[in-house]
Amino acid sequence: xxxxxxxxxxxxxxxxxxxxxxxxxxxxxxxxxxxxxxxxxxxxxxxxxxxxxxxxxxxxxxxxxxxxxxxxxxxxxxxxxxxxxxxxxxxxxxxxxxxxxxxxxxxxxxxxxxxxxxxxxxxxxxxxxxxxxxxxxxxxxxxxxxxxxxxxxxxxxxxxxxxxxxxxxxxxxxxxxxxxxxxxxxxxxxxxxxxxxxxxxxxxxxxxxxxxxxxxxxxxxxxxxxxxxxxxxxxxxxxxxxxxxxxxxxxxxxxxxxxxxxxxxxxxxxxxxxxxxxxxxxxxxxxxxxxxxxxxxxxxxxxxxxxxxxxxxxxxxxxxxxxxxxxxxxxxxxxxxxxxxxxxxxxxxxxxxxxxxxxxxxxxxxxxxxxxxxxxxxxxxxxxxxxxxxxxxxxxxxxxxxxxxxxxxxxxxxxxxxxxxxxxxxxxxxxxxxxxxxxxxxxxxxxxxxxxxxxxxxxxxxxxxxxxxxxxxxxxxxxxxxxxxxxxxxxxxxxxxxxxxxxxxxxxxxxxxxxxxxxxxxxxxxxxxxxxxxxxxxxxxxxxxxxxxxxxxxxxxxxxxxxxxxxxxxxxxxxxxxxxxxxxxxxxxxxxxxxxxxxxxxxxxxxxxxxxxxxxxxxxxxxxxxxxxxxxxxxxxxxxxxxxxxxxxxxxxxxxxxxxxxxxxxxxxxxxxxxxxxxxxxxxxxxxxxxxxxxxxxxxxxxxxxxxxxxxxxxxxxxxxxxxxxxxxxxxxxxxxxxxxxxxxxxxxxxxxxxxxxxxxxxxxxxxxxxxxxxxxxxxxxxxxxxxxxxxxxxxxxxxxxxxxxxxxxxxxxxxxxxxxxxxxxxxxxxxxxxxxxxxxxxxxxxxxxxxxxxxxxxxxxxxxxxxxxxxxxxxxxxxxxxxxxxxxxxxxxxxxxxxxxxxxxxxxxxxxxxxxxxxxxxxxxxxxxxxxxxxxxxxxxxxxxxxxxxxxxxxxxxxxxxxxxxxxxxxxxxxxxxxxxxxxxxxxxxxxxxxxxxxxxxxxxxxxxxxxxxxxxxxxxxxxxxxxxxxxxxxxxxxxxxxxxxxxxxxxxxxxxxxxxxxxxxxxxxxxxxxxxxxxxxxxxxxxxxxxxxxxxxxxxxxxxxxxxxxxxxxxxxxxxxxxxxxxxxxxxxxxxxxxxxxxxxxxxxxxxxxxxxxxxxxxxxxxxxxxxxxxxxxxxxxxxxxxxxxxxxxxxxxxxxxxxxxxxxxxxxxxxxxxxxxxxxxxxxxxxxxxxxxxxxxxxxxxxxxxxxxxxxxxxxxxxxxxxxxxxxxxxxxxxxxxxxxxxxxxxxxxxxxxxxxxxxxxxxxxxxxxxxxxxxxxxxxxxxxxxxxxxxxxxxxxxxxxxxxxxxxxxxxxxxxxxxxxxxxxxxxxxxxxxxxxxxxxxxxxxxxxxxxxxxxxxxxxxxxxxxxxxxxxxxxxxxxxxxxxxxxxxxxxxxxxxxxxxxxxxxxxxxxxxxxxxxxxxxxxxxxxxxxxxxxxxxxxxxxxxxxxxxxxxxxxxxxxxxxxxxxxxxxxxxxxxxxxxx
Length: 1531
Description:
By secondary structure, this protein is an alpha/beta fold. Helices cover 50% and strands 9% of the residues. The termini are far apart.
């Protein structure tokens, strides 16, 4: 190029070739950059417009870009570049620039690396300005310093720098590093790597040939970045020591990063090395101190440990620089004549890949294995599959399940469920539950399954598989890789290639599917080198990724198997042992343990010989486990084991330990299943106490913890029964721990299921073996009032509170002294210290206050702390997933996500000492964090309120406004938790609270507007949950009396979910409005007819809503509505109660009208006659005035509604009579009693308002003698109604009046009722209701007072019944006559053929027709049992049986009835008659000669499975829906 070209006027005329020539000859930049501008057709005309950013966009490094722009500006201005720096720096190489920056300027190491990567040589630096440095990420301070030091060079001598290294920087040789540098790269140490790191593209790009000139390039951009990474700038003439390198590196870390670096040093798994003592990592230690400690502790490994930590905390640039320095250090230290290539140690590589640098396979939570076709001889080397915690296996061998296949071999020792890819579609929670994922291995056949011999299961060729099955595989892989299924970074995918793979192979397509989701979590194990090379080439070609570093190909399968089996944790040499009969033991096989998915089994040799207990590894493990527990983690079996070692202090025994152990050990041998409730405050050690007792009894009982409470209770019972009999012909008692059971009914249901399963097994056992067939359930019930729960509990129970005895306090003091010997600062074990302080509120408040000092709520970590405090305060076991924490704290983009739990706690400093991390097994397994202790969380809330004025409502609203919380898929459980905290109500002494504890507290402290804001926002977040608008509606009508708004929200709830609960909420709004209006009107005088009309309309709407609730309740509703209804009744009766209360309010409104008002009995009779429909409102005597006329108009307008009220409410009372008399619901004890008292109170009000008094009837009889008979009939009917004896169920309930009054008084009342029905039978129109009630009241009177003159004989009653049965036939819609047939016509032992079987069938049909919605989830009650005598005497009532146990506490007696244990008692056996029968084709029959009468088992599980035809015997009870069999025994 001529000199004339180098002028501003000539630039625009340059061709692109001339631009290329200028760049290479004048600017003197690398050819590849000049080529790049040539490819992009940059001519002189275009070049004039180029800025530095345009060059950077072309991937030109920052140094050359600055130089190009600077020289271009000089060229355009026609002036020579003037720099404030001396000219000699233009001769500096990149290495010399780096040396000067490091040694003279002394800037951070990462800044030096940055300039080196951006190819800043001396001639580039000559053109730099401060902004150019800042744009490289160099802070303003260092940038100013660099420019100042460059200018300062003008005033001093030229610095002496290392001469250019052996690396040739000539243009022609920059394409590749020299030979020695290649050796240097190969000499770098092999580091533990995360699987599957993408390598740079190595494909040959196209060659561009500009006209007239040939440009030769081997690769598209052998980028100077890569090239620069190979060049090592020398620091000095002598190689620095490891300590110096370490100091350099630590000095380059910012303060926050240095703190994270020290935190990582505490990790036990780090590079397989033990941690440094915490005292060496305190905040007071300088970087030099830490470097010195690391060098002394790790020795030669110190730099490798440092390198690993840098990579894991995301300092990749600093790590790259350290790696280069380490490589140079090794080159200098070694003999240059030796080959510096490090041989691959694939055994170590395999260990590192599976353990992430440790010796234990406990880093990854789950493994996914993809395996192709195997050979039979390979099976012996695949035992390692049984050691892996397999989530699933994707098997492409269609013969795998047949003998000689991998699946068949695996199933010899482990359980695997066989699935197809299509089964992994749907909602994750549903799929997980249906396929038993996490609990048992899922073995997925991905291309046929030949052992089934079906055409649909044949193996497909690749073409057919690609078309038909590939999409299923992709969906399955996508499902597996969802964070809510397998959390990122905690799962390793292993491709186990037992045979070669081609490019048209389903296994390769499966790899691509995994690669797109989990690139960094894939490991490859190949059976041969040739298989690996082919596999590697396929992936290289398709994915541009080199898999060498995460692949194993040099080891034989035998070596792979041996290496994996050698990794810990190790199996116990003698196996896991269980106690057995006659003081023997049995081995718990892994396959048997796999099958018991609900149980976590505690063996008698638990924890023994798992570690070498003399090793440093064991000591480190011990320290870590103890620290986790005493900081606030859940107790581990290891904690008890450590305390049994020689010279170890014993585990602290709580005061109730001996009592609890005694109750467990000394149970009645005749009882097959015992429930022992342990009530405890949150965080006071209740579960720890139960596990301590279990640990000490593990050699006497087969012990297990129920780990999955979602399984059907019958399935859990089956597994417990199997555990009892495992490995022996004789039974061994089982001790089962049910932890955190909030619903006592659930555990009682489990108890009944276990009892039935065990008793079924005992029918063929000896007496001695049956006595050992026992299960004791220890149920830990967390509650806020354990003393009250203890008092009202009807089972065996103990309680432990947040209060220590003096001995316990002394034990904790001694334990603290012991902990100080082995732990740094045990005073920071806050959970332990809280208990040691006897739960001292001041101690907790001080800890929290000191930790939260200078809290800044504008920071994310403070907000997250507030979220956790709120949730943990109102649900002690709540947690937030680590995935959400990472995203909320802005950590998702950092590398090494699997270190998230450590980094989250680091980010939460200085509050992390109040938090703990834990593994959660809900809906799969994931990591989460929560507060160390419930009391700490509560104290945090108080501190936030007191010192920072941050209210609970503000925290709640912040959570609801947090978009991250509602989009992160792994926090589904957290969202459910938020809902519970907002709407779940609690039980108290009078029923349930109006709102959740959080809402109640916000209401009392902050007022209504905050509640409104919370629920309004929550309703927009939880749009599919009706419980939120329901709760808001309830709040508005109860506390705000804002009935219009309450109605809007109640109707919103109906639109979300239309069921009996939401319809009842609408009715409650109207009813509350009605009550509020009446209370307000009482203050007004005179009364206003318009108000009366308004109230009538509101009452009408309320009744309509409640009737809708009743109608919806008869449908098979789901459990969704129970979100905020703690009382999970089998049938929702709230609609009936609401209508009853509304009707009584209307009756009171009417009774206050001027012409019905007052104590005048005549006016009261007028009202009763009007309500009965016998006296029109116009005919009611009244004063003739405008107000009364207006009242009459209003009443006439609503006459239809008003006249329907009395029969409707009468029907409701009849409904409740049947409900409480016939049905055995889930609600027992106090709650059931409260419901009955409420209905009884309403009934009394009803009688007072609408029924005539005896005095009124007497006066009516005297005034109208011609109507005496009618008056007498009305008198009897009124008496029956007042005494709740006008219905069949009401009469039947008289059997149980003896509970509340004496037998004589009850007999006297029943005798009067019998007299009334006798009179009605003879003096009124005959009807079936009177006949059936007459028969029943005679039967009951006989049981109470058999010698009464009013009692009819058995034959007389039978004749009356037979006539009734003849009249109604077999299709009568009501069950009462058929029920009486069971009582009176049940055959005797020598009976001939009767119609009883027909009556039983008719009874079943009619009862289900009338009460199917009540029987949906409830059992019926037998009021009579069959005894051995004759006539009416053979009917034995339940109260008569209860008399046999007069000295037994009522609660204990109730438990005997619920469990069925009552029928084992001799007193009962002697009073009942055992009926012989058969069990045929799943049906149970009572046999009387040739007559077979169908009966039902009274308890679920009372009969054996298998449909075997067997002879049985049982006791018989009579319920409203048919005969029930109790205590079924097989002959």
